[in-house]
Write a structure and sequence with these properties.
Elements lengths: L22 H14 L13 H18 L8 H14 L21
Helix pairs in contact: 1-2
């Protein structure tokens, strides 16, 4: 029997909520929106000024920034995590010498 399947390019999106969010992203967005519109925070902030209004919606804006999709990564939260791991956790030293015929320094003198 010959099985020739054509897998659509967006087949990974079927496992996501609304084709955009996974479980952790949905929780982050819900908590951010919940903190922005909670009854504990809103009475203490002067929403008539621009600064007060931005302070009231800041948790929702931060959550939206974290789950914003970007190319080559799922979202900006994953990009920030991978950047942190690259620079601080799994730091590597890459030595590039190019296409030189003769090197001025040997491998032992680094």
């Amino acid at each position: 029997m010959d099985y020739n399947y054509l897998v659509p390019a967006n087949s990974k999106k079927q496992g996501l909520i609304f084709g955009l969010l996974n479980g952790v992203d949905a929780i982050i967005l819900a908590v951010g929106i919940g903190l922005s519109f909670t009854l504990f925070l809103l009475p203490f902030i002067d929403k008539s000024s621009f600064g007060g209004a931005m302070l009231a919606v800041a948790p929702a804006l931060i959550a939206a920034f974290l789950i914003f999709p970007i190319p080559n990564y799922h979202n900006s939260r994953i990009f920030i995590r991978e950047m942190y791991r690259f620079y601080f956790v799994h730091r590597r030293k890459y030595i590039w010498r190019g296409w030189c015929y003769k090197y001025e320094q040997s491998d032992d003198e680094q």
